[in-house]
Amino acid sequence: MRTERRTFLKSALLSGAALSPGLAMAQQKAPEKGSMIKKIEVLPTSVEFKHTFVIGRGQVGAAGQGGRYAYVRVESADGHVGWGETNTIPSWSYETLESVTSTIRNYLAPICMDRSPFEQTYFQKQFDERLTPAVSQGFPFAKSAVIGATLDLAGQIAGIPMHRFFGGKIHDKIELCYALSIDTPKVMAEAAASFPFVKCYKLKVAGDPIVDYQRIKAVTEARPDVDIWLDANQSYRPIYMETFLKKIEGMTQVKCLEQPVKSTDWFGLKRVRDKTPLPIALDEGCFNSYDVARLARMEAGDLVVLKVAKAAGLWGCQRSAIVAEANGLGLLGSGLTESGVALAAAIHLYSTMDLLLPPELNGPEFLADLMVEGLKIDGCTVTVPDGPGLGIKVNEAKIRAQAIKI
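RESULT FIELD:
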């Protein structure tokens, strides 16, 4: 009996069943030779912003100017194609468009070549062997784009939507949270009023207790019907947080406060949490499931902000969610102003979860073009795609036309 069980476990691990029953079943449908990855491209691309976006760490994008995105195109021997994407915001995380491009081309792509896209556990293990997540997080944005592309390819080959790899969707539609870029209280209130269909805003604050209070007050007066998710993006020093927390005390529309202090200041974070009944969420200080476990052990926060890119891909993001829930922490979903490829991937994953607030995936709000077709968005509500893989069509011609030479 022991021998039979050991044989079964070995078979399950090698097939990917230990990672995901959906992935294992899909792999059984795939023709082995035809599914092998034969071509991988990374396409650095400029994607235009239609509105300026400023957070506590500085400007993310400027109206009329291009953001710096990396798309990954993976092709199998039989001609199926998968797509992945990451945005690069060096003021938020250390990965630049140049580093993502070279990392994928020189380190990650060779690992995937001539392998099946269903070998997801192998990819993750080898990625971490090649680019160790020590000192830094190990280039998670680059890894995320490749994992997303190979998973899309696997879904295309097997003919199943991406959410099936993660247990299947429990929501057919996902309502989005939009972000309110840092500006004067009047301008932020006007921005909030300009999207009447939005029911939750992530309101960016900048580290000044008085002005930030005025921003929140102006927005809540303009939109008394919305939930407010505050995000400081590390802009506060712990000593100034007490003044800010006293100012916003009793503002019932405010549901949580995200990353109030520097990502490395875990003791400052705990100090903030101890001084307020407002739920504290961790983002920049919580990249992976190990960070989630540390957060729970230190009792330094109440909520975990999930982001696919920072977790080195969809599997890492799912692991963070599992560890968070096992430790009694709530889940919030977010993104990094990605276009339609990464937006669709996040929608697939978040459709399998119960998030406490609408996920902040603000590409539709800030970008002039999502670079995809077939993604159904009504107001701020996205229909979860049910086609193979991502379930959308990528505008490859436009991505190539807006390429950045690196």
